[in-house]
């Protein structure tokens, strides 16, 4: 299952603006951010222009690559700083391990919802 960040114009514009700002503050080109987040540079460009909305997984990848809070990118907080981790020790894992754990969490949530 693929989760996509909702795309109302205001939120999409805020995400695009904040992604561009965070990338520039970190001194990354779109290609550098794409490499760090395991995304195509063109995808970064689409997100920054508000032409496409990232999946939840891609928001996490971008936040981790930029070392900022996903909540900041999503417009839920005004601070770029903050944890992007879901649990203690996550920062010591590589991206593949984080994605595996996220997939397990999503599967457990679906299993839990199915048993209700």
UniProtKB/TrEMBL annotation:
InterPro entries: Cro/C1-type_HTH, Lambda_DNA-bd_dom_sf, Rad_response_metalloprotease. Pfam families: HTH_3. SMART domains: HTH_XRE (SM00530). Residues 19-73 form the HTH cro/C1-type domain. CDD domains: HTH_XRE (cd00093). It comes from the Bacteria. GO terms for molecular function: DNA binding. This is Helix-turn-helix domain-containing protein.
